Amino acid sequence: MGRQVIAGSAWRNYLEGSDLQRSNYLACNCREVKRCLTFIHANTGRSRTRKVASMSNFPIHSIQSAPEGSRASLRALEEVFGFVPNIARAMAESPVLLKGFIGLFQNVHSGTFTEAEIQVLLLTNAVTNRCPWAVAFHTHLALKQGVAEADVNAIRERRVPANDRHGSLSATARALIEHRGSVDAADLTRFFAAGYSAGQLMEAIGVVAASTVTNYVGNLALPPLEEAFQKHAWQ
Predict the structure, then answer these.
(1) Structure confidence by residue, pLDDT tens digits, 110-152
(2) Distance set, CA 53 to CA 3, 206, 222 (Å)
């Protein structure tokens, strides 16, 4: 009980101060704040603690509120999607990241994979990196691109899709992430047997790299999920 009181007091002092006061308080009372985070994590769950931090540190920008260097990129995304995805609005805090992300995705979508195959890769990556926003978003896009609902559900449930080509792509993408670029002989054999080339294996690494940006920003900034994707929400 004593630890709960200390943690609660530290947390209130931290939250109720200005940005400067919070910074100073954290520097002087790091142990108490850490105790608070530990207590909240144990009693209310990790995601709730992360949301508190996210709301204070990672704005979800509009085109108007974004740094000048990010506005052209956000406008370009608006032309593509008809809206600016919340994940990009979070990225907009860093023009360097946002510009690099868009350039990488342009390359990914101009490669040799079909749009359906790209979405299989991106959805697999989102699930493997445990990014709820990206899973919902790429579920929507995968279905829109004609990926079978059964294959989409398999990926969301961390299973291999029944479709041979989609299954080989998904298994390879998961292995690349989980084993830091290493893919075992069985997965490689299946990948090449499905008709993909060595060049496309390298290209798949590019897709993994692009989606890693999305997934990491999603897990760090916790952008709200747009209403259009709520039916595909994932835990």
Answers:
(1) 899 999 999 999 999 999 999 999 999 999 999 999 999 999 9
(2) 21, 31, 10
- Which residue has better confidence, 127 or 12? 127
Give how many domains the chain has, as a whole number: 3
Placement of tokens 């509120």 in the chain: 65
Lowest mean pLDDT among 62-71, 84-93, 98-107: 98-107
How large is the C-alpha radius of gyration of the chain? 20
Which structural domain range is residue 37 located in? 2-57
CATH of the domain at 188: 1.20.1290.10
Residue 227 lies in a domain: yes
Distance CA 38, CA 235 (A): 22
CA angle 59, 62, 64 (to 5 degrees): 120
**Closest to 187 measured CA to CA, from 125, 179, 215:** 179
pLDDT at 74 over 80: yes
Phi, psi of 186 (to 5 degrees): -65, -45
